[in-house]
Specification:
Helix content: over 70%
Strand content: under 5%
CATH class: Mainly Alpha
Largest sheet: none
Mean pLDDT: 86
Order of helices and strands: HHHHH
Radius of gyration: 17 Å
Distance between the termini: 62 Å
CATH architecture: Alpha Horseshoe
Low-confidence stretches: 1-10
Structural class: mainly alpha
Number of domains: 1
Number of strands: 0
Length: 128
């Protein structure tokens, strides 16, 4: 008995397009494959779906993963955008996972800021 391959002509019709858990997993695979732009796009879509379903913990995971990617690229402004999103979630929905993700990113921001300013001086243009 043979197995067929199901191919979707339009990515929006794929089951993962409406499953935030599947989108997040695809994003993590994309990060591992070096496809950061695709991963970011999928994490944004997963985040929005998690917010719709009020799954604050997983929404915070999406922001956390995006922040870490931006930190690895040295994109401090977008890292701060993710931190602000996490801070908002933390203030509204203070679960242990949301708190952990917020404090992890916030401590990373402060550490990076401190190290860059220590290395390059207080005039280093860290955007904050």
């Amino acid at each position: 008995m043979g197995y067929g391959v199901l191919v979707y002509a339009n990515e929006e019709n794929a089951p993962s397009a409406h499953d935030p858990f599947a989108l997040r997993q695809e994003a993590l695979r994309d990060f591992e494959s070096g496809k950061a732009e695709d991963a970011q796009r999928k994490l944004i879509a997963a985040y929005e779906l998690f917010i719709e379903t009020k799954n604050w913990d997983m929404a915070s995971m999406c922001l956390y993963e995006r922040a870490i990617d931006y930190m690895n690229m040295g994109d401090w402004e977008n890292m701060l955008v993710q931190q602000n999103g996490l801070e908002s979630l933390y203030e509204q929905h203070n679960s242990p996972m949301v708190a952990y993700n917020y404090h992890s990113v916030a401590s990373s921001v402060y550490t990076v800021r401190y190290r860059l300013r220590k290395k390059f001086g207080s005039e280093y243009p860290f955007p904050y």
